[in-house]
Amino acid sequence: MGWEYDASKITIPYFMAAGTGKTDDSGVEDIYKEFGGVCPLEALKDIYSAMGQDVTKIRARIKGAEHEDMLTLTDGYMTAWMLWQLCGDEEAEKVFEDDSAEILSNVNWQDIERNI
Fold it and tell me: N or C: where does the chain have the smaller number of CB atoms within 10 Å of the terminal CB?
């Protein structure tokens, strides 16, 4: 979208969520030559990689979701993320932590990468 930012300056926990629908990822070949959607996977990967390895971070996409669906479809995981990050809720942490993290087995989510 032409926005200038430096993701390497992010130092706080970060949960990146997007959909796989055309509004978030239109499937163009080169997102740097033409508009690829609001949150194309390649842009998410670039942002994730630019953040430091010491940042608690996760990147995940909801299968088939359009950008306007994100508010409702991400609510459960966003609530768990906030409970964990802001309140230290250990039950909410389990949704994201270790190899048995619930988000990893949720068939509605894909392209998950995390540094937790």
Answer: N
pLDDT of residue 47: 95
The dihedrals phi and psi of 65, each to the nearest 5 degrees, come to -80, 140
Farthest-apart Cα atoms in the chain, separation = 43
Q: Provide the b/e sequence for 44-63 (b: ≥16 CB within 10 Å).
A: beebbeebeeebbbbbbbbe
Residue for token digits 């669906």?
69
CB 30 within 8 A of CB 72: no
Domain 10-115 is found in CATH 3.50.50.60? no
Q: Are 58 and 104 contacting, i.e. CB atoms less than 8 angstroms apart?
A: no
Q: Give the pLDDT confidence score for residue 1 in this predicted structure.
A: 52
pLDDT of 15 higher than 90: yes
Is residue 109 a contact partner of residue 103, using CB atoms and an 8 Å limit?
A: yes
pLDDT digit string (tens) for 26-60? 999 999 899 999 999 999 999 999 999 999 999 99
